[in-house]
Amino acid sequence: MEFSSISQVHFEPTQGCNASCPMCDRNVNGGVVNHHLTNATWSYTDFVNSVDPEFIEQINFFYSCGNHGDPILCNDLIYIYEWMKRINPSLRILTTTNGGARSTQWWDDLAGLSEVNFSVDGLEDTNHLYRQGVKWDKVEENISTFCDAGGKAKWTFLVF
Known about the structure:
By secondary structure, this protein is α/β, with parallel strands linked by helices.
């Protein structure tokens, strides 16, 4: 494969998460955090010093999802996305999250940068069974804020 042929990227921006999902490798059965994880996260500075702007120009899809963390827990995610959009305004960015963290202002800012897959497993009476530690009222507020700001959202969920 030629480096110049890469058009899509899957980026894991952080090991931090606000949930303790029982089947997640991030923790032990919904409990203590996996001892192999350090809650590492990318900073804006680390990202721009590691990724060549010419590479950002060549890609058309940038996906942030977490195997060991929720992307929205990356403190500099908005700044990273803004930097990439300045370089490549047509870049499609997609973020997958449980939606249970951050301020409404943060979600308002994200709406102009990234599409979002909200991983919400059930409704108020069931989401907490799998997305342990995630507060339903916060998820609902964040989804509403994002959508009201013009964000493109999709609901993804596990079927039990």
